[in-house]
Design goal:
The protein is about 45% helix and about 15% strand.
Length: about 210
């Protein structure tokens, strides 16, 4: 099968492993990897980087993530690079749980230890939990100010964040606050459950949901 036919086949398959590509090309692993580099293929950020896809296939979401079945790809590169970019681009910094929700990773994964003392990221402890911010001074100050304003100082979500909360709340009227916060986080907004509670209570909406949670 020539290169053009292989590309067409991969487009139909969406994703391939190196073994599948070797079979399609009837080549060695080294040659197959050379083709992947030439095609500027994306490597999956989960499944130990086992899967590949062509650059024109993914439809990345607002977090720069594309999911095919259980396989995740990122426009930012590998898993560590993706986590760094998600943190640096966030409005209020991110907790390990929030990062994990975006990349479908357990918050106690050992990869979080690799974010320590790494360029671009600053980790701090707040109320017993670690939170990750950009280490760029202006961005750090903006993120930390927004975090305190939302979670500690009694602030309310921005108009954009309020829309995201309400959309998920309408879709899932019986959802608890923790899960509602998780769904909003997947849309790229980190909003603490306590802030969501305050917002819903302010608008008289909280009482419409039974067992909404703490």
């Amino acid at each position: 099968m020539d290169q053009i036919q292989v590309i067409k086949r991969v487009r139909r398959m969406k994703v391939v492993t190196i073994g599948q590509l070797v079979s399609l090309l009837e080549s060695s692993v080294i040659t197959a990897r050379r083709y992947l580099k030439r095609w500027r293929a994306h490597t999956s950020v989960n499944h130990n980087g086992r899967y590949y896809t062509l650059p024109d296939i993914p439809k990345f979401d607002s977090n720069g993530i594309w999911k095919y079945q259980t396989i995740l790809f990122s426009q930012y590169g590998n898993l560590k690079q993706t986590m760094i970019q998600l943190i640096r681009r966030s409005e209020t910094g991110l907790s390990a749980r929030e990062v994990g929700q975006m990349v479908e990773l357990a918050s106690n994964s050992s990869i979080f230890s690799q974010l320590l003392n790494i360029s671009g990221i600053r980790r701090e402890k707040h109320q017993g939990h670690f939170r990750y911010f950009s280490d760029e001074p202006a961005t750090y100050e903006r993120q930390k100010s927004a975090f305190y304003r939302q979670g500690i100082s009694g602030g309310f979500p921005s108009d954009e964040e309020a829309v995201l909360i309400l959309v998920q709340y309408i879709k899932h009227p019986q959802i608890d606050l923790e899960k509602l916060s998780q769904r909003v986080a997947k849309e790229g907004k980190s909003i603490a459950p306590s802030v969501i509670r305050r917002f819903l209570e302010h608008h008289g909406l909280l009482k419409k949901t039974a067992d909404i949670g703490p």
